[in-house]
Amino acid sequence: MNILNMGAIRIGDWKGVRLNLLKGNATWSLYDLNTDEKEQNDVAVNHPDIIQKMIAISKKEHHTLELSRFIIPVLEEERNK
Q1: Helix, strand or coil for residue 63?
Q2: Mean pLDDT of 5-12
Q3: 30 with 39: CB under 8 angstroms?
Q4: Which range among 3-7, 12-16, 21-25, 66-70 shows the weakest confidence by mean pLDDT?
Q5: Is the pLDDT of residue 22 over 70?
Q6: What is the DSSP annotation of 66-77?
Q7: Is the pLDDT of residue 51 over 80?
Q8: Is the sign of the CA dihedral 25, 50, 32, 8 positive or negative?
Q9: Region 21-49: what's the mean pLDDT?
Q10: What is the pTM of this model?
Q11: How far is CA 22 from the centre of its chain?
């Protein structure tokens, strides 16, 4: 898998994952690693507050790369909102 095509953020036992970024899919999946080490149960719909924190971190920490081939449009759009 292309590493530019995914992103992840960890907050304590929570792990937020985004796949298919290059296709414009900005949907987050959320896993509670305390109870779901294999990341099989997406609980994002049950924890919108955690997802919002992860979105804020993603916006704050994303930096535009100098080489255009590494730019991920969906992250650039989110950062500039």
Answers
A1: coil
A2: 88
A3: no
A4: 66-70
A5: yes
A6: SSGGG--HHHHH
A7: yes
A8: positive
A9: 91
A10: 0.72
A11: 12
Question: Positive or negative, the Cα torsion across 6, 55, 57, 30?
Answer: negative
Is residue 28 a contact partner of residue 14, using CB atoms and an 8 Å limit?
no
The set of residues, in sequence order, having a beta carbon less than 8 Å from that of 56 and lying 6+ positions away, is: none
Q: For residue 58, what pLDDT band results from cuts at 50, 70 and 90?
A: confident
What the block records as the tokens of 11 is 């907050």
Alpha-carbon distance values, 55 to 12, 58, 66, 69 (Å): 16, 5, 23, 23
Q: Could you tell me the two tokens for 62? A: 């994303």
Q: Write 41-49 long-range contacts (CB < 8 A, 24+).
A: 44/16, 47/14
SS3 42: coil
Which amino acid does the sequence have at 48? Answer: P
CB 27 within 8 A of CB 51: no
